[in-house]
Amino acid sequence: MKSTGIVRKVDELGRVVLPIELRRTLDIAEKDALEIYVDHDQIILKKYKPNKACQITGDVSDHNLSLADGKIVLSPEGAEEIIGTLQNYVENSKSST
Fold first, then answer.
1. Nearest 5 degrees, angle CA 25-CA 34-CA 46?
2. CB-hemisphere CA count at 13 Å for 48?
3. Shared-domain flag, residues 40 and 56
4. SS3 for 85?
5. pTM surpassing 0.70?
6. Residue 42 and residue 59 share a domain
7. 92: number of Cβ within 10 Å
8. For the segment 45-77, what is each residue's pLDDT rounded down to a tens digit?
9. What is the CATH number of the domain that holds 4?
């Protein structure tokens, strides 16, 4: 683990401010969700990344493919289904012209 040399106090409501430089470096924007982990006596904050569920099959896996800035998520099976559908579409559109 790398020290940043940054020290912040916890306020009366239990809040800690993350410095802008750190947020920029880690691509943490306002309203982004952070996951909180505990490892013995350490608190670890990690930018929350929701499970990548395939939009075709519903399968959740870290191996799923994310396209269009995360707007489309496909499992290998879902990708095969999309490829088949697209191939049929192209073949049918060629024969109708």
1. 60
2. 9
3. no
4. helix
5. no
6. no
7. 9
8. 988 876 678 999 988 888 899 999 888 999 999
9. 2.10.260.10
Q: Which two tokens stand for residue 53?
A: 């569920």
**How many CB atoms are located within 10 Å of the residue 53 CB?**
15
Domain that holds residue 9: 1-48
pLDDT band per the 50, 70, 90 thresholds, residue 16? very high
Q: For residue 70, what are its two tokens?
A: 């995360």
Q: Are residues 41 and 55 in the same domain?
A: no
Give the whole-angstrom CA distance, residue 94 versus residue 60: 35
- DSSP one-letter code for 60: B
CA distance linking residue 94 with residue 88, whole number of Å: 10
What's the structural domain count of the chain?
Answer: 2
Distance CA(44)–CA(34), nearest Å, equals 10
* Whether residue 38 sits in one domain with residue 58: no
